[in-house]
Write a structure and sequence with these properties.
The complex is a heterodimer of chains A (158) and B (228).
Chain A lengths: L2 H23 L2 H17 L10 H22 L1 H6 L11 H11 L4 H12 L4 H8 L3 H21 L1
Helix pairs in contact in A: 1-2, 1-3, 2-3, 3-6, 6-7, 6-8, 7-8
Chain B lengths: L15 H8 L5 H13 L1 H8 L19 H12 L5 E4 L13 E8 L2 E5 L4 E2 L4 E8 L3 E8 L5 E5 L6 E3 L2 E11 L5 E10 L6 H8 L9 E10 L1
Parallel strand pairs in B: 4-11
Antiparallel strand pairs in B: 1-11, 2-3, 2-5, 5-9, 6-7, 6-8, 6-10, 10-11
The chains are: A mainly alpha (158), B alpha+beta (228).
Chain lengths: 158, 228
């Protein structure tokens, strides 16, 4: 995949990445950066898409992966995070719940967090999650259960 | 705390993935027909799909072509770049005393998976990601401008046309990073800390012409890094 092809893909599919990054990161600035980064990663590794069964699916995963990393980095830089101006960007009505989920995602094991995003934020069935993440349906159930357990632990220690 | 995972945050019956794939023409005939039929009869899914349409996107930064106008500005850039060490220029607003040099702009560089705090004169590589953090004793309107080795001026932060408000604090991260393109050489960075949301494009243009006019009420910190 060359630069021109990536640019075309960016024009046709970029909005999917941007929308997803907005809801995962809760900040327009950070979402714009995610958009650039996800497509930049294709330039670095043009073969990444060749093996993907679905371009949309690949973009979903690349965006999730990038955004979850950002959420964890933010948590590591908590001191900095607390000084950030609150993200004023509006979106669908469930902003509060989303903000709550973001906090949890940053503290969960990465694979469980990815499953939570697919299931709770994208409304995917366990089958869909399994296909996207390339694991079994049972494994998805296990990941979601781990996520629930880590939420319980966070509640208890809060 | 109520468990936020107790219910799905997705407002439709078809998943976001399925709708995106349908809207982008990725589903096979039968699967696409199934989604189409469902959308016809389901207001929730129809409403969800209507929020998933394409929207205007900014330029893809990494693929930007070399800019014209560099001949004229290159000489100016070379002059500016001579100041590789940290320079702080203070110019107080009328009737206001300078607050001293409590302001600073720090750059964080991500090379591969490694992140480091960079200082003036730092050597970085094309493809590295950089992100800035501001230190300011009082809330200020902040912007980060640069002039690349070709003399092309750009605004690293913010996305909008005017400097944006940053709270007082040390190393407050500016919520926008950038990836360095392949132009090698010395790139000059100008951090602006202002009392008002100044317009940035005139400053960027002035920078390309070889100088910077410091607006009233602004403090400026300048330094450069080397890309190779």
């Amino acid at each position: 995949m060359d630069g021109a092809a990536i640019e075309r893909l960016y024009r046709s599919h970029g909005h999917v990445v941007l929308r997803r990054a907005r809801s995962l990161l809760g900040s327009e600035h950070d979402a714009q950066e995610a958009l650039q980064e996800v497509f930049a990663s294709l330039l670095r590794e043009p073969s990444a898409l060749r093996e993907a069964r679905s371009i949309v699916g690949w973009l979903y995963q690349a965006t999730t992966h990038y955004c979850l990393n950002q959420l964890r980095n933010r948590r590591t830089g908590l001191r900095l995070l607390e000084q950030r101006p609150a993200a004023p960007e509006a979106g669908p009505g469930n902003q509060e719940a989303l903000a709550e989920v973001r906090k949890l995602l940053a503290q969960m094991p990465p694979d469980a967090a990815a499953a939570v995003v697919c299931h709770h934020l994208d409304g995917m069935t366990h089958d869909e999650v399994a296909e996207l993440l390339g694991c079994s349906r049972r494994q998805v159930g296990y990941l979601l259960e781990r996520a629930e357990a880590s939420v319980l632990r966070m509640e208890q220690s809060a | 705390m109520k468990n936020p995972l107790a219910q799905s945050l997705w407002p439709a019956c078809l998943s976001a993935l399925q709708l995106d794939r349908y809207l982008l023409g990725e589903l096979s005939g039968a699967a696409a027909e199934e989604v189409r039929a469902h959308l016809d009869g389901c207001a929730r899914c129809k409403a969800a799909a209507s929020t998933m349409r394409p929207e205007p996107l900014p330029r893809l930064r990494l693929l930007r072509a070399p800019r014209p106008r560099w001949h004229r500005a290159a000489a100016a850039a070379a002059g500016l770049a001579a100041a590789a060490s940290l320079v702080i220029v203070l110019r107080p607003a009328p009737g206001e005393r300078p607050k001293g040099n409590g302001i600073a702009l720090t750059m964080y560089v991500k090379h591969g998976s490694e992140v480091r705090r960079a200082g003036p004169g730092e050597t970085v590589a094309p493809g590295d990601s950089v992100r800035f953090a501001a230190t300011t004793p009082a809330a200020a309107y902040v912007a980060v401008l640069s002039i690349d080795p070709r003399g092309h001026g750009s605004v690293y932060y913010p996305l909008g046309p005017r400097a944006e408000s940053v709270p007082a604090g040390a190393d407050v991260p500016l919520p926008l990073g950038t990836r360095l393109d392949a132009t090698v050489g010395e790139e000059k960075i100008v951090g602006l800390f202002c009392a008002s949301p100044v317009e940035l494009d005139p400053l960027r243009a002035r920078l390309e012409q070889g100088g910077i006019e410091i607006p009233d009420g602004c403090q400026v910190t300048q330094w450069s890094f080397v890309k190779r």
